[in-house]
């Protein structure tokens, strides 16, 4: 069975995965960029965005692990774009230009039907309107023997956690306080849901933890 | 002005400072002991409890810092003991035996009057029934030019945070998930209250962060 994995998901010290007041100027919410400083510096991130250089070491190892053995992705609609309600047309093709960094089928959760959208480099966006289990089934079929990466955002991850469908979750706890926004933990009893901390590797930039479901 | 400082306060990855179902057998709540593993190993902790040995290094440095330049302590009643309601008599003298590890005046918040309780080694417990500001005023007078350490528990710290009275808070984020219990962050906007992260020193045992009020 392929695993459903959350990888490189950054949260603040007070548990927020995104800041308040998300909009086009602040897609991660106000203050949300601070969560991802550990990732921006890595070789994996730089390479993903067509740049050379970047750091190696623990932060990069975790960033790289997020792309290993991944056969499909699942994204919440807000991660795909800022469009709300029915799709007015096919002009929005994601935040990532002509060649998105996925290179696999990507299943986007939405309430509004839309035709599959093939992109360059092996990424095709499929729009799933019949719920998170359906998206997971379709992603599993597409992934074959590989795993599925659950990209986010917070509310999508919380839905899959609550349904007991996430097998493994790598969080990077950043040295930042957001105070409000989208909280990953609020009202979610991860202990009761069977998660325990199976890996703990701190770096000067973030504390990496892996939560695994029993 | 003396500072009001929280030191060596351990929280889980999901923000809990104590587990659920606190009682005499589990004074830190179920699972709560896991939060303090980083501290138990340190030389400072071992010495405090009359043992030799213990680790030195970053964990111990943070533990030791919590006792530097402290002229008075403030504790919530639950940290002083399990007795609830009016004091039946003077028999409960804290968890710590005849010579508690404070060696300063200690102001215990309670709704029920009780005479001051002098102990060996310089600790005297004073019982404050007229609120957190009063306890802080009395502790400041007793501390002189030194700082005041706010010991806990969670609900006491939250009261002082909400009132904007905590100057500095050292948290040790432990690699543990509790899922329920007493959450330090829930419903508290630390960003709005003026706190930011001014220090971030991870170790294999815990991620140490210091939040300072602007």
What layout of secondary structure does this protein have?
The structure is a homodimer of 214-residue chains.
Chain A: E1 4-11, E2 16-18, H1 37-40, H2 43-48, H3 58-65, E3 70-76, H4 77-80, E4 105-109, E5 117-118, E6 124-128, H5 132-143, E7 147-152, H6 154-162, E8 168-173, E9 182-183, E10 195-202, E11 207-213
Parallel strand pairs in A: 1-7, 1-8, 3-4, 3-7, 4-6
Antiparallel strand pairs in A: 2-9, 5-6, 8-11, 10-11
Question: What's the short version?
Answer:
Two copies of one chain form a homodimer. The first copy, chain A, is an alpha/beta fold and 214 residues long.
Cα-atom radius of gyration of chain A:
16 Å
Series of secondary-structure elements of chain A, N-terminal to C-terminal? EEHHHEHEEEHEHEEEE
Number of helices of chain A: 6
Give the structural class of chain A.
Answer: alpha/beta
Oligomer: homodimer
Biggest sheet of chain A, in brief? 9 strands, mixed
Question: What is the share of helical residues of chain A?
Answer: 10-25%
Mean pLDDT of chain A: 93
Distance between the first and last residues' Cα of chain A = 15 Å
Choose one word for the global shape of chain A.
globular
Query: Tally of extended strands of chain A?
Result: 11
Contiguous runs where pLDDT drops below 50 for at least 5 residues of chain A? none
Instruction: Give the spatial strand order of the biggest sheet of chain A.
Output: 5-6-4-3-7-1-8-11-10
Q: Pair with the most extensive interface? A: A-B, 30 and 30 residues
Strand content of chain A: 25-35%
